Amino acid sequence: MATQDGGEEVIMETEAKPKGAEALGEDAEKGETESTSHPVAGDATTQDSNISNGDDTDDEREKVDLKIIWNKNKYDLKIPIDNTGAQLKEKIHSLTGLPPAMQKVMYKGLLPEDKTLREIKVTNGAKIMVVGSTMNDVLAVNTPKEVIQQEVKAEEEKKEPLCRQKQHRKVLDKGKPEDIMPSIKGTKERLPTVPLAGMYNKSGGKVRLTFKLEQDQLWIGTKERTEKVPMGSIKHVVSEPIEGHEDYYMIAFQLGPTEASQYWVYWVPAQFVDAIKDTVLGKWQYF
């Protein structure tokens, strides 16, 4: 029995050693697990970093492509959908030069400045209409016509008299029309209640002028047709007495932004010239 007990003890001791070995093995495995846990933590960091990058990518996707339409021009704009209407106006300013304060931005109505594009449900590819004028346009519009008239007059004084220029001589050389209205030199009269008739235009055809004050229009009538021109669209009026016939004038109404748009009328009675200018430039004559 002693031998057996001893044997058992030996066996127990022998079995105890593997247990110790197992403990060491467990410790070793635990150590390995702990040692390998650090790279996992590093991986977690990498994953966090990847998640962050993923958010940035989402931000990139959270943009909308817009078509900005202003003054018959189209602009492509990509902008975060969480930008406000005010931020959109700043972007439009950088594209067009149109100050935000002078913009009227339209998307299903007037676009609010304090709401985001997401809140007002702006979709990808949406067309944004912009109405407004640049500072240069505003200054040009607000420049008094009298100032423009003075500048034109100063420029005219530097040039050769209009009635000597070839383009006008071919009309003036036809002579004074027989049915022209009588002129009174050295006097100023209001516009007559009937159209000014019997004059020539640049092509040498007969023309009449009718001032429709109640409609704010100048009617330029020829044998072929009558042009109804809003007086507000006439930029300025050029006039000059006809040499040798100073009791009659040649007058041009500039209908567009350049001199090429001038509509010339010849043999206008001198007494009505100032009244014509005042009427067109806004100083209406009432009767």
Protein model, in words:
This protein has 287 residues and is α+β, with helices and mostly antiparallel strands. The protein folds into two domains: 63-139, Phosphatidylinositol 3-kinase Catalytic Subunit, Chain A, domain 1 (Ubiquitin-like (UB roll), Roll), CATH 3.10.20.90; 143-280, PH-domain like, CATH 2.30.29. The chain has six helices and eleven strands. 16% of the residues are buried. Residues 1-24 and 33-58 have low confidence and may be disordered.
In terms of topology, how is this protein built?
Layout: H1 2-61, E1 63-70, E2 73-80, H2 85-96, E3 104-106, E4 127-131, H3 135-142, H4 145-157, H5 166-172, E5 196-201, E6 206-212, E7 217-221, E8 226-230, E9 237-242, E10 245-254, E11 262-269, H6 273-280
Parallel strand pairs: 1-4
Antiparallel strand pairs: 1-2, 3-4, 5-6, 5-11, 6-7, 7-8, 9-10, 10-11
Region (Disordered): 1-60
Biased composition (Acidic residues): 1-12
InterPro entries: UBFD1 (IPR039120), UBFD1_C (IPR057455), Ubiquitin-like_dom (IPR000626), Ubiquitin-like_domsf (IPR029071), Ubiquitin_CS (IPR019954)
